[in-house]
Amino acid sequence: MILRLAIIGFGNIGQEFARLLLAKREWLLKSKGLDVEVLAIATRNRGSLLSRRGLDLQKVLGELKAKGHLRDYGPEVTALPPLSIIDECDADMMVELTTLDIEHGQPAKDHISNALQAGMDVVTANKGPIAHSYEELRSMARSRNVRLRFEGTVMDGTPVFNLVERTLPGCEVICLRGILNSTSNFVLTEMHRGRTMDEAVKEAQRRGFAEADPSLDIDGWDAAAKITALANVLMGAGMTPQSVVRQGIRDIGAEELLTEARNGKKIRLVATAKREGDGVELTVRRESVTSDDPFWAVDGTSSALTIRTDLMGDITVLETDPTVTQTAYAVFSDMLLTVESIRSGTL
Amino acid sequence: MILRLAIIGFGNIGQEFARLLLAKREWLLKSKGLDVEVLAIATRNRGSLLSRRGLDLQKVLGELKAKGHLRDYGPEVTALPPLSIIDECDADMMVELTTLDIEHGQPAKDHISNALQAGMDVVTANKGPIAHSYEELRSMARSRNVRLRFEGTVMDGTPVFNLVERTLPGCEVICLRGILNSTSNFVLTEMHRGRTMDEAVKEAQRRGFAEADPSLDIDGWDAAAKITALANVLMGAGMTPQSVVRQGIRDIGAEELLTEARNGKKIRLVATAKREGDGVELTVRRESVTSDDPFWAVDGTSSALTIRTDLMGDITVLETDPTVTQTAYAVFSDMLLTVESIRSGTL
B2-157+325-344 falls under which CATH superfamily? Predict the structure, then answer.
């Protein structure tokens, strides 16, 4: 089976995903009988490529490394915008990896709906569309008999959506509680150890996981988008990040954390989703945790989610010290699960 | 679709599974289009039942509660031994819930192989056969085009086998580390808090999760069987519980734990599986853990497993304060996953 991909957005995650495809090429062929071809790669301002014969990923990665753009790649260079690339490329699957727009989840949402309408399966690591328009996109996918997967939107490749969907059949999710944002958790961990917020943010930027403007992390927006995505998918919440009762960590003082530390406590930025009447209440706020809480040991860029269900009680999953490899793996695993569905004729 | 079951072994887990089938009857019909009938129930010394028309689970549970046996149930009472019941019952799926035999995994292994040979799918919560004969049983299932599932053998219904199989495609398991035995963890937790081992064991027996003879738990055999089952399935170890380098907690003194506690440490009975050359090394032994270890917060009857993989790094799953409901759910979820496979024509 040949699987032809269009990759929209080609930053750190996209490039790591491409490296993973190269590294696993033999394994995919031998173990899965799967030959993955990339027909299109779209970037915002480093050039885009479109080819009916398939792109040479090694060459693509080499160009980006050497020149920082794709405009010298060869005749496959295209000036088409992403939406037109999706329409033109004739791929089987679209992989959406553009960056988060917290307000409306755009242009990712349009990329995804265009691909679904064109009859492509979609895999995304972009939480915006799932936090803003999950129901709409899911209905669209169903009506076109294609699949939409998004494991990488929360906790990288650690199974959370797939965990509930694929291993907890018949369980109803009652509530969710998680440490979902790496940067704020890293900052709180460093402050617990005596650093100032400014020092901790600079260190996170130096290590490459915090943005130049870390407000989305520090003000709780990233965690809000993630808990919304989780609640939309696992609890049918139908909400947006704007409806989350949200607290960040910006106004927290070094002294406050040290006082907590002296009392045997750590401050965590915790996102929760709880059923309230007919709806779901979403919050992101600071909590003091003690060492008998599983979240105590979730330091640095690690993350955690407790899923409370009717039949299985509380299950907690922890991800420890992830790198971009883990997010790329999310896309890789969703690609494989989609292929499995295609082959068994299920949605 | 009608699914006809034979349940071999009908203790706490079997009865809870029957209650779950009754509670979810409507949901199974409406959401899954599934009508589950139980054709046979075999117990060791409380009587066995066999019916082509299906048993009344409400009545079965009532008889057991009122009389402690099934011998007055009615004309479906049978004197056939379990192996003959499996041969005679004409069920679609055999559910194996007899108790653990640490030496050979019998008679559960024979029950399972008979059912597989007869073309039945099998779900079991008995770790013996998986720890002793996984490869053999798996080959047998494949050659007969039927399925063998066993999520309940380790950490009750918390997904561990299904987690790797169904949500981590393409990942190779490099090592495993877990707190897998409830009773010994409960005893260590109580001793950390100042109780003696004797008091803690009695309390575990009073609460109903420790056997009258708790040696399998206290001497590390139960944990050994579980890490063997995990390693056989997830790492292709092909080993038995007898090959585990095993330490228990029997010879641990109350003073030792209190000294650790004063030094900010807890003792845990930790099971590990690691690749060593061409093989896998299995151990069960005591470890001192500090509060930055995710296992620190795993107190009482809770359990935990860290799965280290090549592509996804470390994923840890925690189960908190499970009851028999969680083990019954393991069987229920494996039943549903098996039905899903039957419907999609996969193994």
Answer: NAD(P)-binding Rossmann-like Domain (3.40.50.720)
Half-sphere exposure of A56 (CA within 13 A, CB side): 8
- Chain B CB contacts of A320 below 8 Å: 294, 313-316
Angstrom distances, CA of residue A17 to CA of A22, A55, B225: 9, 14, 38
Residues of A in contact with B159 (CB under 8 A): 163, 167-168, 315
Return left, alpha or beta for B300; rule: phi > 0 is left, psi -120 to 50 is alpha, else beta.
left
CB of A81 within 8 A of CB of A106?
no
Helix or strand (DSSP H, E) at A338: helix A324-344
Partner B contacted by A312 (CB < 8 A): yes
Question: B170 and A319: CB-CB below 8 Å?
Answer: no
Vertex B53: Cα angle to B52 and B54 (nearest 5): 100
**H-type helices in B160-220, by residue range?**
161-167, 182-192, 197-207, 215-218
Predicted TM-score of the model (pTM): 0.97
Residue A115 has pLDDT above 90, yes or no: yes
Q: How far apart are CA B74 and CA B128, in angstroms?
A: 33
Amino acid at A108: A
d(CA A108, CA A13): 15
Q: Which residue of A has its CA nearest to B324?
A: A312
* Share in percent of chain A as helix, strand, coil (round to 5): 45, 20, 35
pLDDT tens per residue, range A70-106: 999 999 999 999 999 999 999 999 999 999 899 999 9
Domain ranges of chain A: 2-157+325-344, 166-321
Question: Closest by alpha carbon to A335, among A148, A65, A106, A105?
Answer: A148
| Chain B (149-178) residues lying within 8 Å, Cβ to Cβ, of chain A | 157-159, 162-163, 166-171
Q: What is the pLDDT of residues B165-223, one digit of tens each?
A: 999 999 999 999 999 999 999 999 999 999 999 999 999 999 988 888 899 999 999 99
Q: Is A298 helix (H, G, I), strand (E, B) or coil?
A: coil
B226 labelled catalytic:
yes
Residues of B with Cβ-Cβ distance to A171 under 8 angstroms: 329, 333
The complex's ipTM works out to 0.96
Structure token digits, residue B115:
């059912």
Query: Which position among B65, B109, B202, B226 bears the catalytic label?
Result: B226
- Give how far the C-alpha of residue A244 lies from the chain's centroid of Cα atoms, to the nearest Å: 19
Q: Taking 90 as the threshold, does the pLDDT of residue A211 lie above it?
A: no
Tell me which fold the domain A166-321 belongs to: Dihydrodipicolinate Reductase; domain 2 (3.30.360)
Amino acid at B142: R
Does A341 score more than 90 pLDDT? yes
DSSP track, B116-167: HHTT-EEEE--HHHHHHHHHHHHHHHHHTT--EE-GGGSSTTS-SHHHHHHH
Bridge partners of residue A148, in order along the sequence = A122
A27: left (phi over 0), alpha (psi -120 to 50) or beta: alpha
Report in angstroms the alpha-carbon separations of B29 from A112, A193, B33, B58: 34, 55, 4, 18
Q: HSE (CB half, 13 Å, CA atoms) of A268?
A: 28
> Measured between alpha carbons, how far is A3 from A339 in angstroms, rounded to an integer?
8
Q: How far apart are CA B252 and CA B194, in angstroms?
A: 13
